[in-house]
Amino acid sequence: MTDGFDFGIGTLYPFLGKSDEDKRIMINSIGPLWDGNEVWLITAGGVTFAAFPTVYAVMFSSLYSALMLILFALILRGVSFEFRGKVDDPRWRKVWDTCIFIGSFTPALLFGVAFANIFKGIPIDHNGVYHGTLFTLLNPYGLLGGVLFVMLFLVHGALWLAIKTEGDLHDRAASVANKLWSVLLGVVVIFLVASRFSTRLYDNYVAHPAFFLVILITVFALLGTKFFLAKKAFFKAWFASALTIVGSTFFGIVGLYPNLFPSSINPRFSLTAHNASSSPLTLKIMLIVVTIFIPIVIGYQIWAYTLFKGKVTKEDLAYEEAY
Fold first, then answer.
1. CB–CB of 2/298 below 8 Å?
2. 87 CA to centre of own chain
3. 58 near 271, Cβ under 8 Å?
4. Which of 11, 70, 80, 218 could be joined to 99 by an S-S link, Cβ 3.0–4.6 Å?
5. What is the pTM of this model?
6. How far is Cα 105 from Cα 187, in angstroms, rounded to an integer?
7. Helix and strand totals (H; E) in the chain
8. What is the pLDDT of residues 141-169, one digit of tens each?
């Protein structure tokens, strides 16, 4: 929900950035926020290690190649933001502009591939040993999940640009968001249908029909994105897009439970919330820490977003702190 829109902006960067000024405005629209957004990724890894150490161990060995590619892409992207303006040379900037695109598109795609494969099941045995390669993950359903994540983030990023920019760049961002939404709708429908045949996610929904509310909320959020786009209420559209991403995530979580890392070899080899968790004392301590500190972090992020809620203008590029 947070890092998604700056992945989207980075992916749209070479297509919407018609001039160096446009590109700088695009970077500065996420400049105060992108690194804070990525902290949630680090936190997710740390929390997984503390709460479900077995899942952490198996996941980071099974998906090692994909996760390393994501890590290298994130490093490349962060460096690119800082380096592109250090030398006043078009060729220098072009190199780092390409790196920004690669460093944004690659994680968006691979996160989708990774999550779709988790939904589908990973070929792990009773010892948690992965029987496959990086190319095993690049199956049709996995790639479809990658396309879904990319489309979600592209719409999310285009909406953020529409909020944060003005003039011609604003108009192009709003137009792109409208066009991409139609593609996203098609991908969502295909993914939901494919999930019926490639996964067992719907088993929990059939057993507990009330869970279908998660899918309904997500669908209404997706339709709400288009509705608010038509009304030119871009922040409301962005919020609906954020809710769509959250709902898409919970679609998988609800369908997987109690599995955390299902095995496609044999369901008995799956890692669940029960057989892979830390001790009850560890989980209680974590619950206390989370209850106290997560609201503080969320409050800080709300403050940061409020502080930088204004549009990025040409005048802002003159500041020394600007990218």
1. no
2. 31
3. yes
4. 80
5. 0.93
6. 17
7. 13, 2
8. 999 999 999 999 999 999 999 999 999 99
